[in-house]
Each structure stands twice: as C-alpha cells, then as structure tokens.
Design goal:
The structure holds two protein chains of two kinds. Chain A is mainly beta. Chain A has no helices and eleven strands. In chain A, strands 2, 4, 5, 6, 9, 10 and 11 form a seven-stranded mixed beta sheet that branches. A four-stranded antiparallel beta sheet of chain A has the order 1-3-8-7, with no helix packed on it. In chain A, a hairpin with a 5-residue loop joins strand 7 and strand 8. Chain A is globular. By secondary structure, chain B is an all-beta fold. In chain B, the strands form three sheets. In chain B, strands 2, 5, 6, 10, 11 and 12 form a six-stranded mixed beta sheet that branches. A four-stranded antiparallel beta sheet of chain B has the order 3-9-8-7, with no helix packed on it. A two-stranded antiparallel ribbon of chain B has the order 1-4. Classes of the chains: A mainly beta, B mainly beta. Chains A and B meet through strand 4, strand 5, strand 9 and strand 10 of A and strand 5, strand 6 and strand 11 of B.
Amino acid sequence: KAGVTQTPRYLIKTRGQQVTLSCSPISGHRSVSWYQQTPGQGLQFLFEYFSETQRNKGNFPGRFSGRQFSNSRSEMNVSTLELGDSALYLCASSLGNLQGQETQYFGPGTRLLVL
Amino acid sequence: AQTVTQSQPEMSVQEAETVTLSCTYDTSESNYYLFWYKQPPSRQMILVIRQEAYKQQNATENRFSVNFQKAAKSFSLKISDSQLGDTAMYFCAFMIPAGNMLTFGGGTRLMVKP
C-alpha cells in the first residue's frame, strides 16, 4: 500500500497570507489527523477528521481550519499567517473506527516558512 | 489531560551496543495505548512499536522492545545491537481509545556512533 502523502513538501509565505496544505491517507484509512511540530512547542495536535467531520480539536486559534473530502483526503488551511506559524506540519492517517486497533501512520510533512 | 515526559534530551551509544530511552506519562485513564515513533533527519515520523495498556506482556519488534510498567506509568524503549540507521529523534506518545489523537513527549535525540 502507498503511504501517507503530503503536498507541497515546502512552502514559503509572507505574514498575512493564507496557505492550504493537502494530505492523502493510506488507502482504506478514514481518519486524518494534523500535527504542528516546532522547536519550541514540540509536537502538538491540531485536529482530526473522520468521515468528513471534525471529530477532535486541539488548542489552536480559529485561523487554523481543515476539511475532509469523501475520498478521505484532507486539507488544512491557515489564514492570516504569523511568523510563529513557521513549522513542520505533519499529517497522519488511521482506520478511525476506534475499535482498539488505532495506530497513526505519518506522512513526510510540509515545511512552512513564514517571512 | 495526559502528559508525556522524556527526561533525556540527548543520548549516544556505540554501534552494536544496547541503549534504553525513558518515558513517563501521567493519566487517570485505565485503558490506553503507548507508542514510540522515530524521526530521522528526513523528518518522516516512523512507528517503532506500540503497546496496549491492558496487555501485561511487553511489546517487541525485532531489535526494539519496551519495558512497560503500568503502576509506575513508565514506558521505556530498549534498542539492542544499535545501528547507524537508528540515529534519530525518538518520541514517546500516548493515546486513549476514545480519542484518536496522540500526546507526544519532548523527544530524545539518539546518536549512534561508529
């Protein structure tokens, strides 16, 4: 099976712009989770989508949003970018059925630099 | 809320030797999952091993094994016969079954020396 893919791999934006990141899960996986990784804050959970619905949400401002499509692909959007949004954004997919077999598999990440 | 602590920011080990990475966690839940992930310089997060809290038997995956002490809330990773390719950041992570989201520790940077 193909792994989790994320596009683009690298992005450079300026403050105030918005950005959209994409994640395609492993075939058959219906859950997609997003994480932000920074040197200062480490790995932090953003949100999880399952069957096109946001099921869990971390403690991030409303500028961070996401959605999931019927084919389980997910997008994450950050509006009004701030310097502090510079980070590696990781997407992870899992079955999502919460029946005791949940394991998240990660994509290669999108590195976002905000200037 | 759950917290995960990795008290060793950096460690090093000689090739072919054994090293143990420490992880402690805090939770009031009785059922949960614990994971170790590896993040090499390529930044791809790779699953190393998984442990269900209800299982008393420690998980093993080839050269990787864990020492899970539920009462002590401790979950250490042992890497045997260390290889140069084991050089990476290692993250301990926690998940409750009802919530499909991982809580990560701060990571341990492991350097395997030839």
